[in-house]
Amino acid sequence: MGRQPCCDKLGVKKGPWTGEEDKKLINFILTNGQCCWRAVPKLAGLRRCGKSCRLRWTNYLRPDLKRGLLSEAEEQLVIDLHARLGNRWSKIAARLPGRTDNEIKNHWNTHIKKKLLKMGIDPVTHESLNKEAKAEESSSHADHSADNQNTTENDGIVNSSEDNSSTPTENCSSTTDDSNLLDSICNDESLLTSLLWMDEPPLVDASWNSVPAGETACNGTSLPPWEDDCAWLPDCQDFGIHDFGFDCLNDIELNTMNTLEMGDKTVA
DNA sequence: AACGGGGTCAACCGCGTCATG
DNA sequence: ACATGACGCGGTTGACCCCGT
């Protein structure tokens, strides 16, 4: 038995994407929309795994992505979402417009984790480290800490909505001595509740996903819904926008992008 | 100027889940 | 109900960059 490889390993390129490959992928998706990632490499003329194409697109080439560091507000939201959802990065990302799960995961591991540790907060349980240490001292059961872990790791959700009585958010009220940050989040519980527990991603304008396949962006009259914000194009790679075949863009847009592109060329 | 160490982030890997036949 | 295939997710890796010595 065993699992079949997601793609034919022979002749499949790995490693960093080149500008040429990005162009091909963008061109293909702009023309055909997102469909059947497995078929994308072949159809787009890429020697890449479909999975790799999807990842490249969702994490880097997607037009609705924000670039750059997370803002303070975004960071706070991530912390609170993590307290509630655990390492469900995709769920967290869904509530942060323009951010990817990979980006948030990386930011968590490189910035937020350390920040929380500095503040004396366990980044896994969102409990005060002092409190946890005391708890461990007072309890000879190793189970206790394991339970804490399990609440976040086994099913991902630290506390379900059915059990709001013991949400980490409320727990954080009990550890406010250690965390002004979480305190501030706790104080805005109603806002967070409204943000967090609506099933549909409330913050994301996911219009990109609705770009219809085929007849979309560049073959004539209809522009994609994100067309009035094309600043991402020169930003996303160090290749020229003209290479994408963006004939649909008007002169003003092209001029704007050319200007940006000029600046970007220095990077290349 | 050269080197080393730490930080950052894009990309890969393997598994779980879901859809379909 | 089961098998299979495709997609999506989270963990991990490795290359690159920056900064201090």
What is the topological layout?
Blueprint: H1 19-32, H2 40-44, H3 50-61, H4 72-85, H5 89-94, H6 101-118, H7 129-138, H8 143-153, H9 168-174, H10 180-187, H11 189-196, H12 232-236, H13 251-265
Helix pairs in contact: 9-10
This protein binds a DNA duplex (21 and 21 nucleotides) through residues 3-4, 6, 14-17, 36-38, 49-52, 54-56, 58-60, 87-90, 101-103, 105-107, 109-111.
Biggest β-sheet, characterized? none
Number of strands: 0
Based on CA atoms alone, the radius of gyration comes out at 22 Å
Structural class: mainly alpha
How many domains make up the coordinates? 2
Q: If you average the pLDDT, what whole number results?
A: 61
Strand content: under 5%
The span between the termini is 47 Å
Low confidence ranges? 1-5, 140-192, 194-268
The rough form would be described as elongated
Number of helices: 13
Helix and strand pattern: HHHHHHHHHHHHH
Percent helix: 40-55%
Summarize, please.
With 268 residues, the chain is mostly helical.
Task: Report on this structure.
Helix content is 50%, strand content 0%. It is mostly helical. It binds a DNA duplex (21 and 21 nucleotides) through residues 3-4, 6, 14-17, 36-38, 49-52, 54-56, 58-60, 87-90, 101-103, 105-107, 109-111. Keywords: DNA-binding, Nucleus, Repeat, Transcription, Transcription regulation. Residues 148-172 have a biased composition (Polar residues).
